[in-house]
Amino acid sequence: MPQLVKDAMSTVVLTIGPAHTLRQAARLMAARRIGAAVVLDQDTCGIGILTERDILNSLGAGENPDRETAQGHTTSDVVFATPDWTLDDAAGAMVRGGFRHLVVLDDLEPVGIVSVRDIMRCWSAVPERAAAAA
């Protein structure tokens, strides 16, 4: 039976607004030891994602993290997963898109994030479970 996104995803999602500064976002992400935040724009009903890479790119370009906002650095052409996608489907979407996180939606609401690390954790646990069952 294939493993599903709902089995791997983190259901504790950091949600920020588009007006959060990059420093605020970085502090929140660092405190939770996560690499991405869901950006919800209530005015446009849009869902985006801000990743550690987005923040690093801004800093590397010499931008001020206290003036730059999430809105200016959010990936808005996000590929969304559903909880019932297989991990193979999620990994394939990540490889094709060149990213490491997928926002998981259920009925158009963010219910989780699945990362490459989450997928690898599930895949690497398969041999351990099989050996323990034998």
Describe the structure.
- With 134 residues, this protein is of the alpha/beta class.
- 40% of the residues lie in helices and 22% in strands.
- It has helices at residues 5-8, 22-32, 52-60, 87-97, 116-133; strands at residues 15-16, 36-41, 46-51, 80-81, 101-106, 109-115.
- The strands form 2 sheets. It has a 3-stranded mixed sheet.
Main traits of this protein?
40% helix, 134 residues, three-stranded mixed beta sheet, 6 strands
Summarize the topology.
Blueprint: H1 5-8, E1 15-16, H2 22-32, E2 36-41, E3 46-51, H3 52-60, E4 80-81, H4 87-97, E5 101-106, E6 109-115, H5 116-133
Parallel strand pairs: 1-2, 4-5
Antiparallel strand pairs: 2-3, 5-6
Concise structural overview:
The protein has 134 residues and is α/β, with parallel strands linked by helices. It has 5 helices and 6 strands. A hairpin with a 2-residue loop joins strand 5 and strand 6.
How many helices?
5
In percent terms, what proportion of residues is strand?
A: 15-25%
Helix content: 25-40%
Q: Let me know the average pLDDT.
A: 89
Largest sheet: 3 strands, mixed
Task: Name the overall outline.
Answer: globular
| Poorly predicted spans | none
Which secondary-structure class do the elements indicate?
A: alpha/beta
